[in-house]
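Try this one yourself first.
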C-alpha cells in the first residue's frame, strides 16, 4: 500500500492510501504490525524520504502507542497543492518508554493531541520546533509519564496546553519561546519538578493565566526573560518551592498580577530586574521567607504595589539598585538601610 501511494502522481489517491493505512492501525492484531505501519508512515514524513507525504492528513485519533518514533518528522501544510496538513492524535494513549517526537518540526497545518492520555513511561519532544503550525495539547492528562520539551523551540504559530494536567512533572529545560502564542491557561502541574532551567523567553506570548503549580519544585533558575510577554495573572503556586535563582529579567513583560503563592519557600536570590517590567501588583505570598538576596533592581523594572506577604516575610536586606515601588518596611518586609548601587558591568 505504501509503495502504491509513493508511485501514484495523484495526491487525492495517495491520501486514500494513507487513510487506509491509518485505518489498518486500528485493526492490527499485534503491536509489531502496528509498529511497522507507523515506521512506514514516519519514514515518509522525514526530509530524507524518497517520496514525501508531508502535507497530507493522518488520523491517529484514539490509538494506543506503546512505542513510536516520530523523531525528525515534519508536520506541514501544502496549500498550493490543496494539502491542509491535518494530523490528529486526539484521544490517543501514549504508554511506553520509547515514544519520541524529538527534533520533529511543526511548520504548518494542524496537529491535534486534544484529550490524549500519557499514562506510562516517557514521551519526549526534545529539540522539537514549533514554527507555524496550530498544535493542541488541550485537555491532555499525563500521569506516571515523564513529558519532555527540553531545548524545544517555540518560534511561531499557536501551541495550546489549556486545561491540561501533568501530574508527574514536565521539563522545558533550555527551551526557547521566541514568537507566536503558547497557551497554558488553566493547566495543572504536579510531580517532582516543573523545570524551566535556562529557558529563554525572547518574544511572543506565553500565557500561564490561572494555571496551578503543585508538586515539589517549580524551577526557573538561570532563565532569561528578554522579550515578549509572559502572562502569570491569577496563577496559583501551591507547591513545595519556587526558585528564580539568578534569573534575568532584562526585557519584555512578566505579569504576576493577582498571582498567589502558598508554597513552602520562594527564592529570587541573585535575580536581575534590569529591563522590561515585572509586575507583582496584588500578588499574595502566604508562605515562609521570600528571599531576594543579592537581587538587582533597575528603576522602573519591578512593581510591588498592593503585594502582600503573610505567613513569613520578604527579605530584601541584601538587594541592590533602585527600590521598587510598593515596598514599605515592616514586620513582613525587610529592606536594606540604604540600597547599594548596582554593580558596574564588567566590560572585559
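Now uncover the answer:
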Amino acid at each position: 500500500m505504501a509503495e502504491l501511494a509513493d508511485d501514484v502522481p495523484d495526491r487525492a489517491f495517495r491520501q486514500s492510501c494513507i487513510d487506509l493505512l491509518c485505518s489498518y492501525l486500528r485493526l492490527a492484531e499485534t503491536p509489531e504490525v502496528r509498529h511497522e505501519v507507523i515506521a512506514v508512515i514516519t519514514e515518509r514524513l522525514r526530509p530524507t524520504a524518497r517520496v514525501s507525504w508531508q502535507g497530507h492528513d493522518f488520523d491517529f485519533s484514539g490509538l494506543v502507542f506503546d512505542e513510536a518514533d516520530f523523531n525528525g518528522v515534519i508536520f506541514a501544510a501544502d496549500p498550493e497543492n490543496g494539502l491542509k496538513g491535518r494530523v490528529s492524535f486526539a484521544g490517543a494513549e501514549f504508554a511506553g518508554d520509547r515514544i519520541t517526537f524529538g527534533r520533529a518540526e511543526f511548520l504548518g497545518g494542524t496537529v491535534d493531541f486534544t484529550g490524549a492520555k500519557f499514562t506510562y513511561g516517557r514521551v519526549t519532544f526534545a529539540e522539537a520546533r514549533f514554527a507555524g503550525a496550530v498544535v493542541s495539547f488541550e485537555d491532555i492528562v499525563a500521569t506516571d509519564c515523564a513529558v519532555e520539551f527540553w531545548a524545544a523551540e517555540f518560534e511561531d504559530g499557536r501551541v495550546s496546553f489549556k486545561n491540561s494536567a501533568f501530574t508527574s512533572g514536565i521539563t522545558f529545560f533550555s527551551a526557547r519561546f521566541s514568537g507566536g502564542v503558547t497557551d497554558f491557561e488553566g493547566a495543572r502541574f504536579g510531580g517532582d519538578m516543573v523545570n524551566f532551567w535556562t529557558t529563554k523567553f525572547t518574544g511572543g506570548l506565553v500565557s500561564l493565566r490561572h494555571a496551578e503549580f503543585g508538586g515539589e519544585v517549580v524551577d526557573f533558575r538561570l532563565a532569561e526573560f528578554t522579550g515578549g510577554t509572559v502572562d502569570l495573572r491569577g496563577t496559583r503556586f501551591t507547591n513545595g518551592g519556587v526558585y528564580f535563582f539568578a534569573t534575568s529579567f532584562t526585557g519584555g513583560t512578566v505579569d504576576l498580577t493577582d498571582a498567589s503563592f502558598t508554597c513552602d519557600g520562594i527564592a529570587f536570590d541573585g535575580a536581575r530586574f534590569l529591563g522590561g517590567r515585572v509586575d507583582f501588583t496584588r500578588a499574595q505570598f502566604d508562605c515562609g521567607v521570600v528571599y531576594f538576596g543579592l537581587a538587582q533592581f533597575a528603576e522602573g523594572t519591578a512593581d510591588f504595589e498592593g503585594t502582600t506577604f503573610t505567613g513569613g516575610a520578604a527579605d530584601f536586606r541584601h538587594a541592590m539598585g533602585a527600590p521598587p515601588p510598593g515596598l514599605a518596611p515592616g514586620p513582613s518586609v525587610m529592606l536594606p538601610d540604604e540600597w547599594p548601587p548596582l554593580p558596574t558591568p564588567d566590560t572585559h
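Discussion: DSSP finds three helices and 37 strands in the chain. The CA atoms of residues 19 and 308 lie 57 Å apart.
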